[in-house]
Design a protein that fits this description.
The complex is a heterodimer of chains A (505) and B (168). Chain A has 505 residues and is an all-alpha fold. Helix content of chain A is 74%, strand content 1%. Chain B has seven helices and two strands; from the N terminus they run H-H-E-E-H-H-H-H-H. Classes of the chains: A mainly alpha (505), B mainly alpha (168).
């Protein structure tokens, strides 16, 4: 019940009308970002972050998280109307969403997608409301060894759960940590990997990297595909909305399943993209009309959206309670907290009650507001997509350049952004995942300092990571995750005969 | 796609690119390890030295990239798919080269004027628009940025001779 009273206090923070204005501005910007190619949740928030330095942290986080919700909603618009996923997590939405639009049921598909997003987010935020205080209280007892163990688990799960080749995941992760280490070592004050360059003294800012990797890289990829937007038009009116809503209750079991999958993938750093695919796959398997999936099934639109949005929202749970973001966008928000002078982690729930509960309350309101905004403004955003790419692309690149510059007021950063753009393009093409790179870049310093503190405590004895049951089980779990590709290959070899048998059935 | 066209579109295989990127990773890992070793990657009397953590990060990068390299060299089914079609590569360069020029230009004439030139060039070259449509967009976008950043949020962006002449 403590959570409920804190939540009510959180809604009190939102009573400031300016915060509501920021919320709507954030959602509109977010939908715009979600619709435009090359701009997504992570780099959109990164570009707008410097503009919020002057605001109070509460207003700033409300606006930035609203951008995130807006982007999550917006991805569905392009998927359904144009068959172009605006965000990676809306790829699964195109499978049934676009066929529906081709049949002239675009309005229904959009309503279903938005409502699905809302259901997923709502489920996740209820989870956050009740789980976050418990986890935070528990995590207050964590020492440096425990924190490092949790970091280790985060990074190892990328290896164990990612669909990319494990060696490539490890390589980009190490790259992220190495880039994070460039500059002045915070403990000893020594210069690391600057090679005598003054520009490198500042190190690499992950915001610049995010804008390059996701923004510029995405534009290059889009350009390669040769864009010709050929969209379906959509009209949403009350009748379509109500008609669609009437069909939704019968999918409650599927929604619950997708929401659980989404929350799990969001808390572990699986992220929204695999969550949407898994939800779609599960729905296809369990639905009575599974064979009809891919031809324009309403259920096939709802489920991936529930999963994606639940994951996107749940990604904030580990960020707030442990200081570990569950997705690249959550990582950028975490970077924002650090810039505003707030240390994410369990202490946040003790020292910054207003901030935390204001944010959680804003997730509730933001998603209701988001649902209303997208249902009413779809034609407007669909019209933006009809602006040809040769006009949109240079404008997005200019916006990215501005975003990269404003992080540190450094012209050099614009060039760095461009280099990261090319890296992002090549990595995407060669199946190197970008999320571990960004997370390593954000968490590098914190992971390193907790490791070094733990090592200081134990006088360099790695045994500290098995010194009590809690830290021992987290580290062991992390190692299982790390070697999971080898373990699962081993299991498969052992059961080689059985697997073949199963395949024959 | 007929074979002749396929040959025409051929650039490099994905396998070649994989090997090149793995080698670059290895070079970088070597650099990280060497520099960390230089500043001390061992255990001092007061705890780990500054290069301790980065050294092992470099080592992980090295091992992972060597694995990728060996996988690509030793596999019996190398991925000979085309990394990027020639025509696609041209489209990518059509964006990349002007963007590089744009970034260089920012350093000399400021962000606003460079943006106007960049947008105008892009619309004219790739979009084949008429000046009547190009000019409002190319001038309007930097103007909106100017009002938003310099006037509203008081965040200064790089400026050049034109802005100085106008008194900013």
């Amino acid at each position: 019940m403590e959570a409920l009273s804190s939540l009510i206090a959180g809604f009190g923070v939102l009573a400031d009308p300016m915060n509501i204005v920021y919320m709507f501005v954030g959602i509109m910007l977010g939908v715009l970002i979600g619709v435009l190619p090359g701009l997504g949740g992570a780099n959109g928030v990164a570009i707008l972050l410097p503009l919020t330095f002057a605001m109070s942290p509460v207003s700033a986080i409300i606006m930035l998280s609203s951008i995130y919700w807006g982007a999550l909603f917006g991805g569905a618009i392009t998927s359904i109307l144009f068959n172009i996923p605006g965000e990676p997590w809306s790829v699964a939405t195109t499978f049934d969403g676009h066929p529906m639009a081709q049949k002239g049921k675009a309005g229904e598909a959009l309503t279903a997608a938005f409502t699905g997003s809302f259901i997923g987010a709502f489920f996740a935020v209820v989870l956050i409301t009740f789980m976050a205080p418990i986890i935070a209280k528990f995590a207050l007892k964590f020492g440096p060894a425990e924190f490092f163990a949790v970091y280790l688990l985060t990074f190892c799960s990328f290896v164990g759960m990612g669909k990319e080749p494990p060696a490539k995941v490890l390589a980009v992760m190490a790259l992220g940590f190495a880039l994070a280490a460039v500059g002045i070592d915070t403990v000893t004050g020594q210069l690391r990997m600057t090679f005598g360059s003054v520009e490198l003294l500042r190190g690499f800012d992950f915001l610049v990297a995010v804008i390059g990797l996701f923004g510029v890289g995405e534009i290059l990829l889009t350009m390669e595909e040769g864009l010709a937007f050929k969209g379906k038009s959509a009209a949403i009116n009350m009748r379509v909305v109500l008609h669609t809503w009437k069909q939704l209750p019968k999918f409650w079991l599927g929604c619950l399943r997708s929401a659980v999958v989404g929350c799990w993938m969001g808390i572990t750093p699986g992220g929204a993209t695999p969550a949407s695919f898994m939800s779609y796959g599960l729905a296809k398997r369990f639905s009575k009309r599974g064979n009809e999936f891919g031809k324009g099934e309403l259920e096939g639109v709802v489920m991936p959206e529930v999963g994606a949005h639940a994951a996107g929202t749940a990604a904030l749970l580990p960020m707030l309670t442990l200081g570990i973001p569950g997705s690249p966008t959550a990582a950028v928000l975490l970077g924002g907290l650090l810039i505003w002078g707030l240390q994410p982690g369990p202490l946040l729930f003790v020292e910054q009650k207003d901030f935390v509960w204001g944010l959680i309350a804003s997730i509730y309101l933001g998603n209701i507001a988001g649902l209303l905004v997208v249902l009413t403004t779809v034609p407007l955003f669909a019209a933006i997509l009809r602006v040809p790419f040769s006009v949109i692309a240079p404008i997005i690149l200019v916006v990215c350049a501005v975003g990269a510059y404003t992080v540190h007021n450094a012209t050099m950063d614009i060039a760095v952004m461009l280099v990261f753009g090319v890296i992002g393009y090549v990595f995407k093409k060669l199946d190197y995942p970008l999320a571990p790179l960004v997370l390593a870049l954000v968490l590098g310093d914190m992971a390193e300092s907790s490791f070094r503190q733990a090592m200081l405590v134990s006088q360099g004895n790695l045994g500290i990571f098995w010194s009590n049951p809690l830290v021992g089980s987290i580290v062991t779990l992390a190692l299982v995750m790390l070697f999971w590709p080898l373990i699962s290959a081993g299991i498969q070899r052992l059961r080689g005969g059985g697997a073949k048998h199963a395949a024959a059935e | 796609m007929d074979p002749q066209n396929a040959a025409h579109e051929h650039t490099v295989t994905r396998r070649t690119m994989d090997i090149v990127v793995a080698l670059l990773f290895m070079g970088l890992a070597g650099l990280v390890m060497a520099d960390s070793w230089r500043i001390g990657a061992r255990w001092a009397s007061d705890g780990p030295q500054a290069g301790y953590f980065p050294f092992y990060v470099g080592l992980i990068m090295m091992v992972a990239s060597v694995t990728t390299l060996l996988q690509n060299l030793l596999t019996r089914h190398p991925d000979r798919a085309n990394f990027v079609d020639r025509s696609q590569f041209r489209s990518v360069l059509q964006v990349l080269v002007p963007t590089i020029a744009y970034v260089v230009l920012i350093a000399f004439i400021g962000l606003y004027v460079a943006s106007a030139i960049f947008i105008a060039f892009f619309m004219w070259w790739l979009g084949k628009y008429k000046p009547l449509l190009i000019v409002p967009v190319a001038i309007g976008v930097p103007l909106v940025l100017f009002v938003m950043f310099e006037v509203w949020f008081l965040v200064p962006l790089p400026k050049g001779p034109l802005e100085t002449a106008l008194g900013y």
